């Protein structure tokens, strides 16, 4: 029992660290390519406050002072894919499961494996643009 608890704790910590790292690094790189003077501040606010990431994405979408200057590189697409799949799985598992780490980590990992191919298609391959055009956002 103790070994299983330690394993679950380790997996949850590793998952959370990778999620925060990929999300923060993506925000830093994205804000930097859009000419922001404070990419590290954007990353800290996006990762550690509940309203930070939605606000950054809103400003990014509306291009308020964040016009893109360079093309997207492979590293940026990998980071965005991993961050979106892991964040989506983390949030969905938090909503669908009781506050029990055993069930939450199991659901989170399963949902992550389901979300990763979708994130690959939408984010890495850029199919969200086609989706945006088809529903006219």
Automatic annotation (TrEMBL):
Recorded superkingdom: Archaea
Stretches that traverse the bilayer: 7-28, 40-58, 79-97, 103-123
UniProt KW keywords: Membrane, Transmembrane, Transmembrane helix
Classification of source organism: Archaea, Methanobacteriati, Methanobacteriota, Stenosarchaea group, Halobacteria
Protein name: Uncharacterized protein
Organism field: Halovenus aranensis
Keyword Transmembrane helix: yes
């Amino acid at each position: 029992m103790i070994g299983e608890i330690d394993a679950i704790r380790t997996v949850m910590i590793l998952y959370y660290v990778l999620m925060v790292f990929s999300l923060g690094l993506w925000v830093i790189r994205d804000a930097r390519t859009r000419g922001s003077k404070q990419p590290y501040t954007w990353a800290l606010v996006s990762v550690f406050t509940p309203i930070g990431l939605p606000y950054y994405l809103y400003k990014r979408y509306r291009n308020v002072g964040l016009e893109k200057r360079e093309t997207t590189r492979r590293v940026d697409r990998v980071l965005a894919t991993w961050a979106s799949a892991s964040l989506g799985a983390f949030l969905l598992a938090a909503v669908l499961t009781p506050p029990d780490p055993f069930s939450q980590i199991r659901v989170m990992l399963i949902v992550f494996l389901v979300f990763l191919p979708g994130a690959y298609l939408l984010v890495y391959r850029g199919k969200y643009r086609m989706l945006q055009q088809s529903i006219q956002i």
